[in-house]
Amino acid sequence: MRESGTGDGCGAEGTPAVRPSRGRTLYSASMSLDGFITGPGGDMSWLADHLAPNPWLDAFVPRIGALLVGSRTFGGDDPYRGTEAEGEAFGGAWSGPQFVLTHRAPARPVPGVTFVGDLRDGLAQAKEAAGEGYVNVLGAATARQCLEAGLLDEILVCVVPVLLGDGVRLFERPDGERVRLERLALSGTPEATNLWLRVVR
Fold first, then answer.
1. Residue 106, pLDDT score
2. Which end of the chain is more exposed for a tag (fewer CB within 10 A), N or C?
3. H or E segment to which residue 142 belongs
4. SS3 148
5. Residue 176: what pLDDT?
6. Vertex 157, ends 27 and 98: CA angle to 5°?
7. How does 29-50 read in b/e, with b if 16+ C-beta sit within 10 Å?
8. What is the helix, strand, coil percentage profile of the chain, to 5?
9. What average pLDDT values come out for the chain (201 residues) when binned by 10 residues?
């Protein structure tokens, strides 16, 4: 059963209030309470036990126009492994153009996927393809590059009630420079606390 959200910035059934999405980039990820988006070695099996209806994601996914994906994320583990949704973005809830950042494009084309070697070029192509929708950034390293280049607008994090202890962090910056964020909305289900934030420049 779906639960309505609580807190500010929420619309019907706890979904985030609609904001203009054209030309905007948003980093989305599920994260453990201790700050990891994958387990050790890129393991995503931890998330399989927490996949449940989430009105926020249901409302957000149709607003995605294109994906900008890091190469490790594109070729990495899948929480839907062993199911019919394996290999599908958002478990098959979304389909559309994907742009993968890599300097080692595969020899054979992948349907619906464009491999790009430059961040700004890849993002420009993704924005063009996204039309009125968001460019959804997937992968911690790619999101960090977008942020450092001043190209990331928003962040959507689904905090899952689990402690992983190790893995890939949501965000890591060795120099420790702070990034100011403004909370736009907050909601939750039994399996996730959803935080939608804006990058303050």
1. 85
2. N
3. helix 140-148
4. helix
5. 75
6. 35
7. bbbbeebbbbbeeebbebbeeb
8. 25, 30, 45
9. 37 54 90 96 91 87 95 85 79 91 88 94 96 96 95 96 96 86 93 95 87
Residue 65: predicted pLDDT? 96
CB 2: neighbour CB atoms within 10 A? 12
In angstroms, rounded to a whole number, what is the distance separating the alpha carbons of residues 23 and 43? 32
Three-state SS letters, 71-116: HHHHCCCCCCCCCCCCCCHHHHCCCCCEEEECCCCCCCCCCCEEEE
What's residue 6's pLDDT? Answer: 37
The predicted structure's pLDDT at residue 28: 95
Nearest to 157 by CA among 41, 22, 26: 26
Distance CA 29, CA 131 (A): 22
- Would residue 141 be called left, alpha or beta, if left means φ above 0 and alpha means ψ between -120 and 50 degrees? alpha
- What does DSSP assign to residue 62? G
Residue 99 · residue 114 · CB < 8 Å? yes
* pLDDT value of residue 20: 66
Compute the distance between CA of residue 93 and CA of residue 62 in angstroms, rounded to an integer: 8
